[in-house]
Design brief:
With 686 residues, this protein is an alpha/beta fold. It has 28 helices and 21 strands. The strands form five sheets. Strands 11, 12, 13, 14, 15, 16, 17 and 18 form an eight-stranded mixed beta sheet that branches. The chain has a six-stranded parallel beta sheet with strand order 3-2-6-7-1-8.
Length: 686
């Protein structure tokens, strides 16, 4: 037998060789959970369990393949009869054998995402709705999927999400969704969610099938158990009911996906469901420096409902503490990030060693502009930068007409969004406008209103009023925000609710876009910067993939499971992180998200906190430093920049320097701070 004591640390060995029975492995960040799970499979096989006795459940097929390949490296030929894969792939295998019991053929069709959108689109038109004017099919599919994974009927789910969907659409959305479910059944097809729903139904309603799989799977192992939803947990519990040999591996400190259906209670209540469960904690961290781990431990200790764990370092101290850098406002934050990256490059890091992780997509808007301006190559995990997103391009089209009244493509994009305006109508409008629309000209505005189709006229009137107010305000501080708010009120927020399942976040993006425009001296310059940043050449460079030498920009949610030598987290200020959208009940999850961000860093960690942000009235809104920083022990980080408790006033002007802490290996970068007083036109060094 393999001598696991030489391959694993004490905690990993205890988990891998635990006796039969329920087992909860609490694997803190960077503690080798995959290695432990692999060697538990090896141990079970060497104890005499057959390949087919073991079921391995993961969240990605890649994770399953990696684990099975690593088992094969230890025990060649030992996994070809083992069932290992995602919950949905295992459910599919069961249904292929037993589908006829549920009234399906064994060769039932699985609808891919394009099939689902096509079928949902057909249901919308079959019920007499116009696709362009109805809630987008992708949004209905998303709501339906989330309700299924949260164990709710669609009606109840929509009742609890009235901010994300037009209330008047909810009854019709339910009609369309029911039609979609009916059409799937007529076609004998299942979508992705149906696989798990029907597998659970198969097991619950058919004793012979249930008993067969309960007898077959004598050991069940589940990876990332903290991310399971209600259906997935029920699936595991049914299969494990007879032998009760269920090993779940996860970290309650990293439960951050409740918004997509993951249920924190699954991992927390595991010892209640299985009172005889053995609990093993993996706390020896192989990823991060002792200085970063000290901060992470202190951060997560402020959550009360959790299993007590503490990360222990295996690496030697670097004598570089995490940096908490307080800046005056967002522009100074972006400048600091650029300088921090340059300092890291001077210290021998490459761009691909650096990640900028943020709470929400709109946090990256100013950062993307500044990285491009500084010629620092970056990649975005979603593959789409903010300025390439549909809602950013829509709003920028209205701005492009201000700068270039002959921009037909901008006119097409902007006014093609309106109800009753298709490709032919756009062409006719443009011809009647004599290939020119100058929104600053009142006569041209009135002409557009007079020739607009009746269905589009209310929205056109709102757009014209938005332009009218925009040109009346000239250099008003609230000019840009007022313009986009008027566009949102006129028609665009209703469009967001129909086209996206997160319209409030998209609205926030647009408001932040207005503030980014406000910071520029010239609208034409801003649009030129964006055009340069999003042209095909730069887009190709900035999306070269994980192996390219580029800084990575990502939300923290997307970065879970990854790691970098250097991590920078912006906007660690109240209402930004934790998010203002979260009520107090969700602060523990926000804190877990902050913990995940911290534990992505291996050697250097920069936390940036602006003191002010531009508000939508054009003034500066004070921001307190995040409660997550306030509650940290100050000995665990180095405070740089402005005093963390400084109370600044907007007439101080803009901050353009900092003292210390950028490199970590040098006493300071820049040496001094500098204030520029915009009223006096003078600079003061300190």
């Amino acid at each position: 037998m393999t001598d696991l004591s030489k391959l694993l640390n004490k905690e990993q060995f205890e988990a891998a060789t635990a006796p039969d029975g329920p087992l909860l492995v609490l694997a803190a960040a960077g503690t080798g959970k995959t290695r432990t799970l692999v060697y538990r499979v090896v141990h079970l096989l060497e104890r005499g369990f057959r390949q087919e006795d073991i079921l391995l459940l993961t969240f990605t097929n890649k994770a399953a393949r990696e684990m099975l390949n690593r088992v094969e490296e230890v025990l060649p030929g030992s996994t070809y009869r083992m069932w290992g894969g995602t919950f949905h792939s295992i459910a599919n295998r069961m249904l292929r054998i037993n589908a006829q019991i549920l009234g399906y053929e064994r060769d039932f069709t699985i609808l891919d995402s394009d099939d689902q959108k096509t079928l949902m689109g057909n249901c919308i038109t079959d019920l007499g709705f116009q696709k362009k004017e109805f809630t987008k099919r992708e949004v209905i599919l998303s709501h339906l999927s989330t309700s299924v994974n949260k164990g709710m009927n669609l009606s109840s789910y929509l009742d609890n999400n009235t901010t994300d969907i037009a209330e008047y659409d909810a009854p019709n959305i339910i009609r369309v969704a029911n039609k979609y479910i009916e059409r799937k059944r007529e076609l004998g097809a299942m979508d992705f969610d149906d696989l798990l729903v029907n597998a659970v139904r198969l097991l619950k309603e058919n004793p012979e099938v249930r008993e067969y799989y309960q007898n077959r799977f004598k050991h069940i192992l589940v990876d990332e158990f903290q991310d399971t939803n209600m259906l997935q947990s029920e699936f595991v519990n049914i299969l494990a009911e007879k032998h009760r040999n269920v090993t779940v591996v996860g970290d309650d400190f990293q439960c951050i996906y409740s918004w997509r259906g993951s249920d924190f209670r699954n991992i927390m209540d595991f010892p209640k469901r299985y009172p005889d469960a053995q609990i093993v904690k993996l706390e020896q961290n192989y990823r991060s420096s002792p200085e970063i781990l000290a901060l992470a431990n202190d951060c997560i200790s402020h959550n009360t409902e959790q299993f007590k764990k503490e990360l222990r370092p295996t690496k030697k101290p670097l004598h570089i503490k995490p940096i908490v850098h307080r800046v005056y406002r967002d522009a100074d934050q972006s400048a600091y990030i650029v300088e921090a990256i340059r300092a890291c490059l001077l210290d021998g890091y490459s761009l691909k060693d650096i990640a900028i992780l943020y709470r929400s997509h709109f946090h990256s808007i100013d950062i993307q502009l500044n990285l491009a301006r500084a010629h620092i190559q970056y990649n975005i995990t979603s593959g789409t930068g903010f300025f390439d997103s549909a809602h950013a391009k829509d709003i920028l089209a209205f701005y492009r007409l201000i700068v270039s009244p002959t921009d037909y493509l901008a006119f097409t994009r902007a006014f093609g969004l309106l109800p009753g305006v298709g490709e032919n109508t756009i062409g006719k409008l443009w011809s009647k406008l004599e290939l020119h629309f100058n929104p600053s000209n009142s006569m041209e505005r009135e002409k557009l209103l007079s020739i607009a189709p009746a269905k589009a006229r209310p929205a056109v009137e709102g757009i014209i009023n938005a332009y009218k107010e925009y040109f009346m305000q000239e250099k008003s501080p609230a000019r840009e925000s007022g313009f986009v708010i008027n566009l949102l009120d006129a028609f665009y927020f209703d469009l967001l609710k129909k086209n996206f399942n997160n319209p409030d976040e998209r609205r926030q993006d647009i408001l932040e876009l207005a503030q980014a425009i406000d910071k520029k001296d010239s609208l034409a310059d801003f649009l030129a910067d964006v055009a340069i940043m999003t042209n095909s050449e730069l887009a190709e460079d900035s999306n070269m993939g994980a192996e390219a030498d580029t800084v990575l920009l990502s939300t923290i949610h997307q970065a879970k499971g990854l790691e970098w030598p250097v991590v920078i987290v912006p906007w660690i200020s109240e209402t930004m992180f934790p998010s203002a959208k979260n009520e107090n009940a969700n602060i523990p999850e926000e804190r877990r998200l902050f913990y995940v961000a911290i534990t992505r860093a291996k050697e250097r960690l920069y936390l940036c906190s602006p003191s002010y942000k531009l508000n939508y009235s054009g003034g500066l809104e004070p921001l307190e430093i995040s409660c997550f920083i306030k509650e940290l022990n100050k000995s665990y980080y180095e405070a740089t920049g402005l005093p963390l408790d400084a109370v600044l006033k907007s007439n101080f002007g803009s901050y353009s320097g900092w003292s210390g802490g950028v490199s970590g290996k040098k006493p300071q970068i820049g040496g001094y701070g500098k204030w520029k007083n915009s009223r006096r036109g003078t600079s003061t060094w300190w």
